[in-house]
Amino acid sequence: MGLQEGRNNACYMHLTLVPYIATAGELKTKPTQHSVKELREIGIQPDILLCRTDRPIPEDDKRKMALFCNVQREAVIEARDADSIYKIPAMLHDQMLDEIVCHKLGILARAADLTVWKTMVHALEHPERTLAVAFVGKYVELTESYKSLTEALVHAGIATRSKVKVNYIDSEEIERDGCGALQGMDAILVPGGFGRRGTEGKIAAIRHARENRIPFLGICLGMQLAVVEFARDVAGLTGAHSTEFDKDSPHPVVGLITEWQDASGRLEQRDENSDLGGSMRLGGRCACLARGRWHVRSTGRPRSSNGIATATRSITRSSVSWK
């Protein structure tokens, strides 16, 4: 890029590790020097060093890296471990990283105002209340699988000055031992997933939330199983299920999409043996409802448009008159 766009229109930032060797009692800068040497061999000279470390880097070590890596001393930036990723932008700003990048690229910009960001971090560190959320899934041994959802809960906690404590609960554990693990929870979240394993545990958790009036959020499969639970336990549809898990269900209140048109108009088809996912549609989608359904009787309109994302599963029509 530096050759294509011009050297003054590219900024090379090298993220490197500065390890602490306990037996030697010191940080080691040699790995950084060697990695920069390798970059130079392919024609890249870093402008900035971002030095990952678990402790403060002594000034002498920063000067050594600047000298042997041929960068300005001010461009050796300490990226120390933090207990929250939301503290890192202010940490880098305090070392003038943003100004160094702007100067390298010849950008005249106003000084960064991080007041709003610092207010957010303050809210994160000084919550006014603590909330316990039960996270009922079947991949809970790999919590990174749900990273986007748990971070969304953190964000919601920041907005409400609350510390959200996420309690991961295996849905198969609920199938085996009941809903005792849900006692004392302020809210229950059931996320998405694929496959029949653990679905009855999720349904039991949803039933527990409804019967005990606990705030509940179902996402993707979680919301579809809420439809299944309501159909079974409130509407009296014994055996209600999704065709994804029981294609012979007497009450298929959720149906697996078998065909659709993609953005180019090409018809795509799938069955219960195909891979799931990768078929999300965003925006409004017109749904034609059969006459005699509750929506048609209450609104007089056989067509309805929703603005939600529709994935590989879709709620089907049912003979129930929802009250």
Helix percent reads: 25-40%
Radius of gyration, CA atoms, in whole angstroms:
27 Å
Mean pLDDT: 87
Structural category is alpha/beta
Strand content: 15-25%
Whole-Å distance between the termini?
A: 63 Å
CATH architecture of the largest domain: 3-Layer(aba) Sandwich
Strand order of the largest sheet: 7-6-8-9
Q: Count of DSSP helices?
A: 11
Can you tell me the CATH topology of the largest domain?
Answer: Rossmann fold
Write out the CATH superfamily name of the largest domain. Answer: P-loop containing nucleotide triphosphate hydrolases
The total domain count is 3
- The CATH class name of the largest domain reads Alpha Beta
Regions with pLDDT < 50 over 5+ consecutive residues? 307-323
Number of strands: 16
Q: Give the overall shape.
A: elongated
How would you describe this structure in keywords?
disordered C terminus; alpha/beta; 323 residues; 33% helix; four-stranded parallel beta sheet; 16 strands; Rossmann fold; 3 domains; three-stranded parallel beta sheet; single chain
Strand and helix layout:
Blueprint: H1 2-5, E1 13-17, E2 20-21, E3 26-27, H2 30-41, E4 48-53, H3 59-69, E5 76-80, H4 88-94, H5 97-105, H6 115-125, E6 129-137, H7 147-159, E7 162-170, H8 171-177, E8 187-190, H9 199-211, E9 216-218, H10 221-233, E10 241-242, E11 252-256, E12 259-261, E13 267-269, E14 285-288, H11 294-299, E15 303-306, E16 313-315
Parallel strand pairs: 1-4, 4-5, 6-7, 6-8, 8-9, 10-11
Antiparallel strand pairs: 2-3, 11-16, 12-13, 14-15
